[in-house]
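Long-time lurker. I teach an intro course on protein structure, and each term I like to show students one example going from raw sequence to a predicted 3D structure in token notation. This year I'd like something fresh instead of my usual example. Would anyone be willing to generate the tokens for the chain below so I can use it in lecture? Attribution to the forum is fine with me.
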Amino acid sequence: MVIIEKETVAQVPVLHVVKKEKREERLPFILFIHGFTSAKEHNLHFGYLLAEAGYRVILPDALHHGERDSSLSDRELQLAFWNIVTRTITEIKKIKEELELRNLIQPDRVGLAGTSMGGIVTFGALAVYPWIKAAVSLMGNPMYEAFFDALIETGKKMGVAIPLSDEQLKREKARLMKYDLSRQPEKLAGRPLLIWHGKCDQVVPYSYTYEFYEQIKPLYQGKEENLKFISDDTAGHKVTREAFLETVKWFTKHV
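-- Reply from a regular --
Happy to contribute to a lecture. Here you go:
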């Protein structure tokens, strides 16, 4: 029987999903990160299937989301986007370390996945945490610098007032560079990576991830089974059932 518990881990509200009979065992561990304006509960189907497969799964609420909602306006939330992304990357490490201290996870068997913003977080975490054994990005974007510029440009075209000077924007972009996997693809070190993206995505453009996939393919020579890109010709900014079943299969194989 799979149980779902609301907990706080490393001061972050999470859903903890695990088989009841394995609750106190050291298990392989998957973290699943939700998308922008979503919440941990919205990805419970991932948690359930992964827990059924024998993993301990944690679904955290990102800053300003879910139980951590701070009543920001849409504009304030948009402006906080990159701060939420980098804060989540930091919190992933703290959650993993606390569960390791509690002897609940196998630290050499850690997987990370996410949808949309969670996929962006996944790529950024791969750039800084070598202990992530395998990862899945669903509708994410590894190109932090390019996406930062694109979001600013879109905001200006829509008439959104950006409350930062050009110099401040430059500093903010520089702060993101250490998480930009497209600038340091060698950090992948051949680790298993599954990328899923719909070609009709109007929110996080498909072109970024496909270009990145083409960029990193040569790095997986001799380890081709560790890299997979799934295109969906008709999907927009919504994860399909096929995508989440492929996610479960990927972790079952690699973590």
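Some talking points for your students: Residues 81-101 form the longest helix (21 residues). The first strand starts at residue 2 and ends at 9.
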